[in-house]
Amino acid sequence: MLAAPGSAARAQAADSSCSYARCSLMIMPRIAALDVVRGADESRVTSLAFLWPRTPVAPFATNAGARVHALHALHLRQLGAMLTDAAIGFAVAGAFESRTHRSSHLHASAAAILFAASVPIHFGADAELSRAVREYNAGLVK
What percent of the chain has pLDDT over 90? Predict the structure, then answer.
């Protein structure tokens, strides 16, 4: 029988026999995302992608504080992704325009500025996801 990912997280959190080693969450960096993994076997429970993020809230459903941090991480990541995507668009437009116009340096400058602006926002999203994991794990030791 298949269960929804969120229901498995709720069941483990509600299970008083769930040990910290089996149920705690960790962050694993990947090429295109930060994955949240559970336990010693590091099974992936959610992910916060860099360019097209989706909600990472399901594993944090049983902990209100962790859920707030996960939602804030999502909102920051969406803003950072929007800036990064726009930077890529300006860079591509500048590359195509460089063959015919001299204004391609404006596209390159805009791309660099947008990308530079996105970096601290992405780091903020990473920090919020880390706070969500910390808050969730603190609930396991109570």
Answer: 61
